[in-house]
Amino acid sequence: MLDVRRLRLLRDLDRLGTIAAVAAANTYTPSAVSQQLAALEREAGVALLERTGRRVAFTPAGRVLLRHAATVLAALEETDAALAAVRSGPAGPLRIGAFPSAVRTVLPAALVALGRAHPALELLVSELDPAAVPAALRDRRLDAGLVHDYDVAPATADTDLDSVPLLDETVHLATPADLDAEGIADLRDQPWIMASPGTLCHEVTLRVCSAAGFTPRVRHRADDFTAVLALVAAGQGVSLVPQLAADRPPAGLRLITAPTRRRTRVAFRRGAAEHPAVTALIAALRTSALTFAR
């Protein structure tokens, strides 16, 4: 019988690429990970990995097991969801990851509604960058999390996770109030306030500006939208800001509709879609998001 924990380590190796990275992600030593994978090979009765010095590669049998491991892990999630569904109702810990602007806007009302409707739920929220949510779901540090992408920078599919739509947002061009501009093309000569390189917000700004025929000239870098809006209001530049982050803008700035939209989804492990706690969370978030959109 194959050990499920070892199957997860095999999936982590495919995702992370090295034994050392798998060890760090699971708080093991590299030696312990190697021993667990060797034990999985003995259980499978066939070589799963080829070792060349410090590098490892999957054998054809290893690739076959990887595909089936995804199915096995999803089936376990479905089983857990089915067992939870026969209990009296959503109960126990529900660990939620959400980005800052969602924590401030759509999440509080959803948490209140969940607490009233399902008092046996223990709601645990972590403020988390959407880029960190998939790993936290795979590592079982979260049960559900908010992720997003933009129409100009769509997310790639993740075979370990499922998700459902939550919110489709307007994205704004935030400019000082006294700046005469009607659209993105009018901002080509303006200084820009941009997120850190390597972030999704940074990439989206580059793509939107590129589509308008220019490269933004960066004056300031800030990853917190509250700071971004304060800098714009102070006349320090222009920026892209999604609707959730611009619901209460400071005085001194103007918001213009940008040629892109941000799409937020509720993500969870594959197979967990029917878990009562997850379905209750999705329903509460959708009600709150609808109220916010109105």
Automatic annotation (TrEMBL):
Keywords: DNA-binding, Transcription, Transcription regulation
Top-level taxon: Bacteria
GO cellular component annotations of the record: protein-DNA complex
Domain spans labelled HTH lysR-type: 2-59
InterPro entries assigned to the protein according to its UniProt record, in alphabetical order: LysR_HTH_N, LysR_subst-bd, WH-like_DNA-bd_sf, WH_DNA-bd_sf
Residues spanning the membrane: none
Methyltransferase keyword on record: no
Pfam family of the protein (one): LysR_substrate
Keyword DNA-binding listed: yes
Matching Gene3D superfamilies: Periplasmic binding protein-like II, Winged helix-like DNA-binding domain superfamily/Winged helix DNA-binding domain
GO MF term list: DNA binding; DNA-binding transcription factor activity
Family statement: Belongs to the LysR transcriptional regulatory family.
Entry protein name: LysR family transcriptional regulator
Organism classification: Bacteria, Bacillati, Actinomycetota, Actinomycetes, Micromonosporales
